[in-house]
Amino acid sequence: MTYSIxxxxxxTNLSIYTLRYYDQQGLLPFVARxxxxxxxxxxxxxxxxxxxxxxxxxxxxxxxxxxxxxxxxQGPATIPQRRALLQAHRDRILxxxxxxxxxLKGVDEKIAIYADPHATDLVEQERAAAKADKIANGLxxxx
Length: 143
What we know:
Pfam families: MerR_1
Number of helices: 6
Oligomer: single chain
Structural class: mainly alpha
Strand content: 5-15%
Protein name: MerR family transcriptional regulator
Order of helices and strands: EHHEEHHHH
Number of strands: 3
Number of domains: 2
Keywords: DNA-binding
Strand order of the largest sheet: 1-3-2
Radius of gyration: 25 Å
Distance between the termini: 66 Å
Domain HTH merR-type: 2-71
Organism: Lactiplantibacillus fabifermentans T30PCM01
């Protein structure tokens, strides 16, 4: 089955502009054009586009996605290169995930303070400690 760029935009929740941009950036060399010059997508193209979206949505740079797609287009000889590229990307995703989890822990700690029945007292203690810290360091008190 084949799809127009409008069909693909609807199926992928990507705008037509984004699909054209991806093509201009060299991410869609596998997409054919018909006699009138319009892009014609196939199911296998949608599968590769899904991979592109996965990589983009997890923070991979366009240049790195292009490198990956170029390797895909070269065939099985590039499997080691593709694996290395994806492994490095996975490592970056996991590092970012750890950072997000650490930040989430900080948010959860603040929520716990504000949910505490003694939240007012706890907040006043934090303010008093911050004020004392400023005074001890000869700085103006912003509180």
